[in-house]
Every structure is written in structure tokens, then in C-alpha cells.
Design a protein that fits this description.
This protein is of the alpha/beta class and 115 residues long. The protein has a single domain, classed as Rhodanese-like domain (Oxidized Rhodanese, domain 1). The protein has helices at 6-12, 25-28, 51-56, 60-67, 83-94, 105-109, and strands spanning 3-4, 18-21, 47-48, 74-78, 98-102. It has a five-stranded parallel sheet. The longest helix has 12 residues, at 83-94. The chain is globular, with a radius of gyration of 13 Å. The termini are far apart.
């Protein structure tokens, strides 16, 4: 599995990809998060599918139903620091998606100019 950099993510956001935030719903909505981040929330256009929901899936079919995208879809997963999203990208890859990890995740993105 390949990591995605901030520059690569910015370019990919102009294409047809699925950006998956695998943090908790509260982190996604900006109601919780790490104190080290200058702001809370999510990357514009992201869809929230928490890692714990992915891990509850018992089969690749369950993962596909949860994600709701066709097999082969390009997915970039992110979390706070790239560890949850790395694991999620591995599971998503096994389910037939072209999944990659945005290693900088929210920790890096939260330091970019608000969009």
C-alpha cells in the first residue's frame, strides 16, 4: 500500500476519488479532537466511516456494503495521524478497492489554510 502526501491529496481531490475519514463521528464533526491541532473538523468532501465500524464487518461484502462504492473505486483514507487510516486502507484494499493512506492526515491538514 502506498501513502499519499498533502500535495498528492490536493491533486486527487480534483478527480473522482472517495475521501474517507476513519475517525470517530465526533472528531469528524469537530466536536472532539487532539489539542495539538489548530482547528477541528474534516477535509472538505470527506465521508465519515469510523474505523471501528469497518472492523465490525465480518466479510469483504460487509465492508463493501458499509463503504457503498463499487469495487475498484479509488479511496484515500485519513485519520488523525495516519495510523488508523493505514489499517483501514489495508482492509479496504482486501475488499477490492484501490485504497491508499493520507499519512499526514488531519494533523497535517488542520494546519493548512481553511477552505
Amino acid at each position: 500500500m502506498e501513502d499519499v502526501t498533502l500535495a498528492e491529496l490536493r491533486a486527487l481531490l480534483e478527480e473522482e476519488i472517495l475521501l474517507l475519514d476513519v475517525r470517530s463521528r465526533h472528531e469528524f464533526e469537530g466536536l472532539a479532537g487532539a489539542h495539538c491541532d489548530p482547528r477541528q473538523g474534516h477535509i472538505p468532501g470527506a465521508v465519515n466511516v469510523p474505523l471501528d465500524r469497518i472492523l465490525e464487518c465480518r466479510s469483504v461484502e460487509d465492508v463493501r456494503a458499509l463503504v457503498g462504492a463499487p469495487v475498484g473505486t479509488e479511496i484515500v483514507a485519513y485519520c488523525h495521524s495516519g495510523s488508523r487510516s493505514r489499517f483501514a486502507a489495508q482492509v479496504l484494499g482486501e475488499a477490492g478497492y484501490r485504497a491508499r493512506n493520507y499519512v499526514g492526515s488531519w494533523h497535517e491538514w488542520s494546519r493548512t489554510v481553511a477552505e
